[in-house]
Amino acid sequence: QVQLVESGGGLVQPGGSLRLSCAASGRIFSINAMGWYRQAPGKQRELVAAVTSGDSTNYADSVKGRFTISRDSAKNTVYLQMNSLKPEDTAVYSCNADGLWKSGSWKYPFNSWGQGTQVTVSS
Q: Is-contact 117 4, C-beta < 8 A?
């Protein structure tokens, strides 16, 4: 019902920057929150940053001051600007969104994930 497509991952040197994008499409009625998660090899998936429909933001302590999440509600798109990247930021980054999708006059909750994009920080 709702699909998320991510872009912007890649290989970057320590101290470099990357910008991730995630666009939601489908029968969207409203989106409550969008966020980025990451999972490194052998580790559990963790929340990196999230933004609500009211533009409240939440960051993992490990990325505060380096990463910035922003949202374009008109485009149903969320961005993650990542600066001062460190090797420990290497992971698969996945986008998540929750809200309501519509079918006729009916609305249903959704919680969708993107396919993930690899971010590798290495010299």
A: no
Cα–Cα distance for residue pair 42/34, rounded to 1 Å = 25
Q: Tally the C-alpha atoms within 13 A of residue 43's C-alpha that lie toward its C-beta.
A: 14
At 73-106, the pLDDT tens digits run: 999 999 999 999 999 999 999 999 999 999 999 9
CA distance 80 to 75: 15
- Give pairs for 60-67: CB < 8 Å, separation 24+: 62/88, 63/89
How does DSSP classify residue 120? E
Task: Say if CB 106 and CB 121 are below 8 A apart.
Answer: no
- The answer to whether 118 and 92 have CB atoms below 8 angstroms apart is yes
